Amino acid sequence: MTExxxxxxxxxxxxxxxxxxxxxxxxxxxxxxxxxxxxxxxxAETLLGKLPARLRDGLExxxxxxxxxxxxxxxxxxxxxxxxxxxFNTALATAMGMAGGLGGLAGALAELPLTVTVLLRAxxxxxxxxxxxxxxxxxxxxxxxxFASAGPMADDDGTDMGFLAARVTITGQTLNxxxxxxxxxxxxxxxxxxxxxxxxxxxxxxxxxxxxxxxxYYQEIARVHFGxxxxxxxxxVDEGLLREExxxxxxxxx
Length: 254
Known about the structure:
Distance between the termini: 24 Å
Number of helices: 11
Mean pLDDT: 78
Helix content: over 70%
Shape: globular
């Protein structure tokens, strides 16, 4: 039995309208990302097939390492650099993608952990904007869960862990476990990103386009994720029920 079956249905029109807005934002973010990726051409399998077999085999581990590094680096940067506007984060990531693509596959590999750090830092800033403290381990884990939405190059299978993940006790084992869950999905997406950047010059264009799309997507998804949590606090409605209502809206329009 789901939380929605246990709890009474929502009737507050303000809450329902807020859920509709969050659903529209989620659909718009996914649509923009998918459109930009379509311009790059080629299926996910074709792009991944361009990568060396050794790199494909080690991609999940490399993604997990990048997430581990970014998790700490993004948090430490908050004491040095103030939160930036979405356009700044997008412009920075776009420039990084272009620079990485100019160096071909080697450049893209070097740029990858930096891009992940910028994305995670942007997500932390959005959490703060919604009234949540990124200095706490719980909120940092929530920021990491945003990556579980897999990104604009992957199909949304309706099981976004950012919406469905249960509350957990914050421990080092929790972090490692969450990264282990996120890494397989995100590694497939990042593999496509690396493949798109593999050719120098052309890879610079692809790298800029992919990073622009990624940053736009994840910032919007972060606003949905933390917007839902803020709505739960402000409306005193159980977050599980709101999550189910939002998921139902996304499924109806899929």
